[in-house]
Amino acid sequence: MALNYRGAEAVVTACEWHGQPAIEKRRNPRSYRHPDLEVRLVAERLRAEARLLERASEAGLPVPLLYAVDPTAATLVMTQLPGDLLEHALRAPNGAVWLPLLGELLARIHAVGIIHGDPTTSNFIARGTSDGDALGHLSVIDFGLGAASDDDEQRATDLRVLLESLEAHHSELNAREPLLAAYREWNCSAGALERLAALEQRGRYNLVRG
Amino acid sequence: MGIESTAHTAGVGIVSPEGEILADCKAVFTPPEGSGIHPREAAQHHVAALPGLVSDALADAQLAPDELALVAYARGPGLGPCLRTGATAARAFAHAHELPLLGVNHCVAHLEIGLLEGATDPILLYLSGGNTQVIGYAHSRYRVFGETLDIGIGNMLDKFGREAGLEFPGGPKLEALAAGPELELLPYSVKGMDMAFSGLLTAALRKFADGMELPRLAYAIQETAFAMACEVAERALAHTGKTELVLGGGVACNARLREMARTMARERDVACFAPSKALCVDNGVMIAWLGYVMQAGGYETQPQDDRVDQRFRTDMAEVTWR
Predict the structure, then answer these.
(1) What is the pLDDT of residues B76-124, one digit of tens each?
(2) pLDDT tens digits, residue range B39-74?
(3) pTM of the model
(4) A29 contact B CB<8A
(5) CATH at residue B202
(6) Which residues of chain B neighbour A209 with C-beta distances below 8 Å?
(7) Among B251, B274, B297, where does a domain finish?
(8) Which residues of B touch A (CB under 8 A)?
(9) Cα B149 from chain centre
(10) Which of A64, A178, B16, B84 has the CA that lies 20 to 30 A from A91?
(11) Residue A207 domain-assigned (yes or no)
(12) Which domain holds residue B211?
């Protein structure tokens, strides 16, 4: 994981939590927003993200463990996951091995009633395939834009965001088919895949006028 | 020369290849008190106004028709009857003077006008009555990174203004009335990269009906809606890594919106370009400029270019001219 990373929402830094190496995610305040609005948004979003992380780890998903939530300081402290950003791992010679794992993991996230909200290749952590035969392990981070929902439309949006991120940065992998094939293994995937097809027909995403 | 007629403004602009604005003539349809823009009435207004605007523009630019290189018009998106009057005027003028004719996208024109301000590859925060979008160029297409899921931000302001007894357009009147710093909390609806304004409108109308004073409500509406727009623009900047922000659309004339956008840009180390009010609102200059940019970039007119398209999407056409 890139430390001292500044996203659109928050700054992520390395820290220590009772002797354990950890990371701290701090939402940076926006001075263009009215202070009362800022306080409300930070509290709402921090709470939502913490809840989703808890829900995900209770369901056994590979996510960071939440150590602490501090609404006043607008921070979350959580375990630091070992590994490399999927964004980088996909560039390795055998990068394509991650795609089925990625499709499977997104299906698992959806299966427990979570919408990630921003499943780009920078929000997955890949660990270990160096010896070639052992399958690597993939974890997911940053539920800051997520929601608890079983809505196929939102699942389809997740898929669309992930596909767009793969097409934009890793077009050489032709990721679509292997990713969707793995997602399709999930026995409840049909609705989301159907919505995905409809979504891609819409003006916003379509390449041919529908 | 560019002809604009997507909504309530009929505009004719002339721009030189160097980006010098030689003429910017406009006539704005004002609906009767208490009502909004009726497409047919606006179109009738444009029919009456456009011939005079074309003559005025040529006079301002001190050019004869045969000195023009191109007639561009806004093909869409917009109100059908209004679009057709602009297209008809452009077609008639182009054919009469044997000039090439090119239909262009209105939203992209708002973005490209930012290049006249000094931007090179910006994100556009486009806030008007009908359109609320965050647009940028990526992978040979103009992409919509975020947009409203229901009504346009200006439409929300105008609708509230109408219900509160203010004249059309309501946005500038609300701006003048807004008084803080106490903030009444209203629904703040950013979903990923998109935003929604109808919940905010409903809540504000309910508070107005319950007797809340207009200055306080106007302030809350502006603070909430503009923060949503700036947040989505900021996400698009972070997502794309672009370092320029351009403001466009009638709502981008609002001083508080400009201030918020500038603050956001400064904190992100992003340059913020806020075109003059004349170029933020609908105008013929930006249509002329986009037409020129496309023509100079080798764009070849497609058969469908000679037809208006009310739902002309920003991201529909592959960009071959950049």
Answers:
(1) 999 999 999 999 999 999 999 999 999 999 999 998 898 888 999 999 9
(2) 999 999 999 999 999 999 999 999 999 999 999 999
(3) 0.83
(4) no
(5) 3.30.420.40
(6) 316
(7) B274
(8) 138-139, 144, 147, 180-181, 183, 185, 188, 192, 223-224, 227, 230-231, 234-235, 237-239, 259-261, 263-264, 267, 311, 313, 315-316
(9) 17
(10) A64
(11) no
(12) 121-274
Among A5, A30, A33, A158, the strongest candidate for a mutation testing the B interface, having the largest count of B CBs within 10 A, is: A33
Q: Alpha-carbon distance A30 to B228, whole Å?
A: 12
Alpha-carbon gap: A31 to the closest alpha carbon of chain B (Å): 7
CA dihedral sign, ordered B116, B117, B122, B128: negative
Q: Which two structure tokens, joined as six digits, stand for B122? A: 């910006």
Partner-chain contact B183 A34, CB within 8 Å: yes
In a domain, B312, yes or no: no
Is the confidence at residue A1, as pLDDT, over 50?
Answer: no
How open is the CA angle B71-B78-B296, to the nearest 5 degrees? 30
Retrieve residue A97's tokens: 């091995």
Q: Do A145 and B192 touch (CB under 8 A)?
A: yes
B212-246: burial string, b at 16+ Cβ within 10 Å, e else: eebebbbbbbbbbbbbbbbbbbbbbbebbebbbbb
Which CATH number covers residue A9?
3.30.200.20
Q: Tell me the nearest-neighbour CA distance from A204 into chain B, angstroms.
A: 7
Angstroms from B298 CA to nearest CA on chain A: 21
Size of interface A-B (CB pairs under 8 A): 61
Global ipTM? 0.84
Smallest Cβ–Cβ distance between A32 and the set B224, B237, B264 belongs to B264
Contact A168 B188 (CB under 8 A): no
Judgement on whether residues A104 and A49 belong to the same structural domain of the protein = no
Confidence of residue A129 (pLDDT cuts 50, 70, 90): low
Q: Identify whether residues A192 and A88 lie together within a single domain.
A: yes
The strand ranges marked E within chain A are: 5-6, 10-17, 20-27, 66-70, 75-79, 84-85, 114-115, 124-127, 137-140, 147-148
Looking at A79, A109, A134, which one is the last position of a domain? A79
B54 and B195 co-located in one domain: no
Contact of A181 with chain B, judged by CB distance below 8 Å, is answered with no
Q: Do residue A71 and residue A118 come from a single domain? A: no
Structural domain count of chain A: 2
- From A47-51, A191-195, B271-275, B312-316, the region with the lowest mean pLDDT: B312-316
Residues B84 and B130 in one domain: no
Residues B236 and B204 in one domain: yes
Catalytic residues of A: 118
